[in-house]
Amino acid sequence: MKRPSSLWLDQALDAPSTPCPRLAQNITADVAIIGGGYVGLWTAIELNARRPDLSITILESDICGSGASGRNGGYVLSWWTKAPSLLAMWGEEVARDLILKSEAAITQLDDFCKQEGIDAEFIRSGWVWGAASQSHNGAWESGMQACAKLGVGNLELLDEAGAQRKSGGADFRAAILDLTAALIHPGKLVRGLREAALRRGIQIFEHSPVEHLRRGRPAVLKTHQGSVAAKRVAIATNAWAASVRELSRSIAVVSSDIIASPPVPDLLAKLGWQDGAGVNDSQQMVHYVRPTRDGRILAGKGGLASGFGGNVTDVMFSNERRAGIVEDKFRQLYPGLGGLQMNSHWSGPVDRSADGLPIIGTLPGHDHIAYAIGWSGNGVGPSQIGSKAVASLLLGEKDEWSTLPIVRAPPKSMPPEPIRYIGSHVVRTAVRMRDTALAQDKLPNALVNAIADLAPRGVEDK
Ligand SMILES: Cc1cc2nc3c(=O)[nH]c(=O)nc-3n(C[C@H](O)[C@H](O)[C@H](O)COP(=O)(O)OP(=O)(O)OC[C@H]3O[C@@H](n4cnc5c(N)ncnc54)[C@H](O)[C@@H]3O)c2cc1C
């Protein structure tokens, strides 16, 4: 069945692109990569840069970018919001290194696009993390203090007037502005990376889902009509990785849902938001709102639905009911934009890890098969870090990438199915109740609080 598209992908597909065939024969490769999103494509490009002699093949079940990479909000964020956890888990030196690497990834993304002539609409317009209620005011405080201690980040506190102006009119009491952050057009980025990979001689097969991975040496990846025998393999399948035996307990799959308006450039100009920042509120099931270069306003929300195991069904790609919820929440956050019509919606799967940080490594007992998953809603920038770590692991290089602490054995942090699916409903209901209470400056019930605390972490460290 054809996967529902996204506005981003439709726009990116308007540009001519090189056709990629279906795999219909048995071939060999030095490296086979499963998944043609940011992680798979950056990994291929990184491996090619380090070892141009390697033959690299990407197998994508649909088209490159049809997963989260062609459907996301387009926020390019560092890991500064994770500073308190990083400090607690790995200490000052490691925390600083990880945050600096994630900041550098934002600049490198821009540089790569410029070098390759990819117009991914990169704009370093900053990110506003605001509080729409008194209870949420200062949600960023611990992150800010940790960053000050580490000497990282470029943060500015905004008062009520500043927060509302910088966010295009969100009903904020206060906010923090992250000046390192950028926005991109996700579809143009992923399709641009695909062309960059093809220019380097990387082979891409689309509409070629891997149905079976034999873990021997060589590993054999079987598709419906063909196979690849590969010396090394990278699993870059985001939420779908929950169907890989060794990885199934490491992530929980949730949806993120987006709605978009038609172009309203005059309204954006009136709001002073044409080249504006991406905006998040402080709810745990976060709301995000951003302008686009073609003058639209786009709003999204994470966590409204959960997936069963790695079974990423169509309901993860589009859902009217969830789009309606996103619209209601957007109207609450932007009371001044009541008349704005929304005319497009889509969704996508998010691979949440328990600590909100990626999980990178090699399958236990199979050091020729690497994985990079668990982006937890912050993969646009950091996927470059993952690709460098995967490249080092597959090349057997012990360096600053393969020794990062996010290179780790797959944790069994999630309960097995069906407990995870059922538990996820209970936890998400509690999170929703707590979010509603805090948004109204009420104290959440203690039981609700305790259950909501079980939720895996997202972009913000909570
Ligand atoms: C709606 C939404 C909003 C988001 N907003 C942001 C944001 O603003 N900023 C941010 O940083 N992050 C955001 N994210 C997260 C970000 O999009 C992801 O972290 C990132 O795209 C992950 O890249 P990936 O390559 O791992 O995954 P994907 O792009 O999903 O790529 C995985 C690919 O694997 C393919 N695949 C799966 N199984 C197989 C198989 N068996 N054989 C072959 N191919 C297979 C899939 O078709 C897919 O194309 C958002 C995600 C969503 C869904």
Can you walk through the features of this model?
The protein is of the alpha/beta class and 462 residues long. The protein folds into 3 domains: 7-72 and 187-250 and 356-394, 3-Layer(bba) Sandwich (FAD/NAD(P)-binding domain), CATH 3.50.50; 122-183 and 251-352, 2-Layer Sandwich (D-Amino Acid Oxidase, Chain A, domain 2), CATH 3.30.9; 419-452. It has helices at 7-13, 38-50, 83-116, 141-150, 160-166, 186-199, 265-271, 320-333, 383-394, 419-439, 446-452, and strands spanning 26-34, 56-59, 75-76, 127-131, 155-158, 174-178, 182-183, 203-205, 212-214, 219-222, 227-235, 252-260, 278-280, 287-291, 297-306, 344-352, 359-363, 366-373. Strands 1, 2, 8, 9, 10, 11, 17 and 18 form an 8-stranded mixed sheet that branches. Strands 5-6-4-13-14-15-12-16 form an 8-stranded mixed sheet. A hairpin with a 2-residue loop joins strand 17 and strand 18 (366-373). The chain is globular, with a radius of gyration of 21 Å. The two termini are 37 Å apart. It binds flavin-adenine dinucleotide. Residues 34-40, 59-62, 66-69, 71-75, 77, 209-210, 236-238, 240, 256, 258, 300, 348-350, 375, 377-380, 383 line the site of flavin-adenine dinucleotide (FAD).
